[in-house]
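Deviations from the work plan: none for this task. Representative record:
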Amino acid sequence: MRVTFERRLSQPWWLSVVVPVGAVILAFVIAGILFLATGIDPLSTYRELFNAAFFQTGSLSQTLITATPLAFTGLAAAAAFRMKLYNIGAEGQMYMGAIFGSAAGLYLGSHVSSSAFAIAGMIVAGIAGGAAWALISGVLKAFFSTSEILTSLLLNYVAGLILTYLIFESESYWRQTKGFNATVFPTGKQLPKVAQWPTWTINLQGGIVVPFGAIVAVIVAVILWLLYSRTRFGFGAQVLGDSERAARYSGVRVRRKILAVMGLSGAIAGIGGASQVGDFAHALDGDPNGLQKLGYGYTGIVVAALARYNPFATLLVAFLLGGLQNAGNTLQGPNFPAGLVGVLQGIILFCALGCELLVRYRVRIHRKAAAKGTAAPAPAPKAAS
Amino acid sequence: MKRSRIALVLLATAGVVALVFASATMGGTAKKAAPYKVALILVGPHNDGGWSQAHYDGLQYVQKTLGSAVQTTYKENIAVGAQFNQTVASLVSQGYQMIWATSYGMMTKALAAKYPKVIFEQATGTDLAPNLGEYFGRAEDTVFLSGMAAGAASKTGKLGYVVAFPIPEVIRHANAFALGAQLTHPGATVSLVWTNSWFDPAKEKKAAQSLVAAGADVLGQNVDSPAAGQYAESASVPWVGYDSDSSSFAPKSWLTASVYNWGPYMVKETRLAMAGKWKSEFYYGSINDGFTKLAPYGPGVTAATKAKIASYMKKIENGSFYEFTGPLYDQTGKLRVAKGVKMQVLTGGTNSLYGMNWLVKGVIGSAKG
């Protein structure tokens, strides 16, 4: 018996539904076996997990706190990866967005009385910070063909050090320097009320608090979708992603495109940073045990990959993974290992990417006798494109 | 194509959610008689062999001492900021009535005000609110004593100290360590390497390595894991730990450590809270009330050193000695605390224990990280 993969000529519509659902179920089964092996009851664990993520009172408010930054970093990754521009730097671009955004918030918050103006200013500053940081990698890629994977990744560490420096190792504009508490432990200056982002409460589940950033993320997703599906810019970017030569022949200006898409990706991550300050922290969080410990930028890559770079799917996956992470946080304790949700998340990604193969390829099992008659097997599939 | 992708993700989500919702609604939750619920939030893993472990031991002590009258839990590896606030929210919604935060920067007055019925206690901070108390131990005394052991064990007088963040808490411990070392080894220097993290075994090991490579023949630390000790053991360099008794990680190199005994204080406050008599205060424990201690000595501490440390410990206990008494000079040789003046915990600005931002003479490194 021999098993081969053959490329599908056409993909039946139901496959693209069955396969991902199957992949997620498979992931839960595999993780369940793992849990059983470590003495954890999988069924009750899953029940608790989803309760804590989506159903119990207050859980959705908590989930949105994690899902919002993941939506931004996921959209940032999706925007760039679509063009096969591998911007791994959403993490650092988010820090830069936070730095610029909080500077704008601190300044505008004490100079203007209009909340809308202060918040708009923070978003614009966040965009500027994130885009500028991403463009370092963009320029290096466009003009010197330097791998954007390496430069954007390494710039994450640089951005992290700058963030810590501003709060812990200097008396910068961002740092609270007044009062005795400020000398005891370094913290960021508190954002004036005017510059703090609003929330909306939905009257469900004891009040679901929706941060303003979550709404901004939805708007960004819509813009991104329009850009990639309805404009020449997006079309050019996708052609460039598929074949640089084809793009050149069809008149796409490659350098300009790289710069634009890198900047766009960084800008989205930058809004995520501004949202961290405006929605949640209300001060620049320079503590390496704070924002930097959470790795939203890296999880964003997982989010985008699971969503196959579709902006709306990215929002959904961010919501799901945000829920899982929130649940892991809620449930961890003496009887629930803290690393469990991370393991589950890893297995889901593994299964989802692995099963992608089944959408594009048909598995053919050849019996010995019949094998002779069939055509030569298709070459092993390359990475899904 | 695109539409089908969206549809697929939507359907996948709906499928899983429906499945789990079905199982979630089936599971009923049985209500028990209500014990007092106490939670502990840790910045690192509960078994880090240092800071977080000491707090975790304290929580275990609460559970053991108060038995079924309390129900305890802990949350580990929690980032300060949004994640901490999330954790508090979920603990409160689960009915936890008393929450212990174990790292500065976790609690804010605003957060405490959001849950006026919950009692918060935070280690190492200074923010007080009607339902937020602060507590810590006078570790500078015991770190000073552990520094004496380090100084005595050094042949060259060059010591290394692995430090987390350039903040007053860590700076005063580094200073206390140096003052102790200089008492048993006049002229001793203490070199610092900052890790910029409370818990990062890889960085801590690297810091220890670079200190030894630069000539340090005894190591000490103000970080949370015993990684520096494990390296010290492999390099046969004497080592002074911190927070917990981690002698098992470096049985030969182990000298001693300043350790915290959080348990009794946690029990005391929990009892008060249960009786409705808890009051917000700034508590600073010491050797006298058992809050801070010196861990058992390792094989490298001589009888003479032990006797000397014991005599100083006695003097500290009865108040006839205090390591932060002037004259104290900073790194540049400038007199910072005049002769006979004792540094206070909270008053005195940068010349207070909680505001100290300068390093004493003989410490090599920057107080800015």
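The radius of gyration of chain B is 23 Å.
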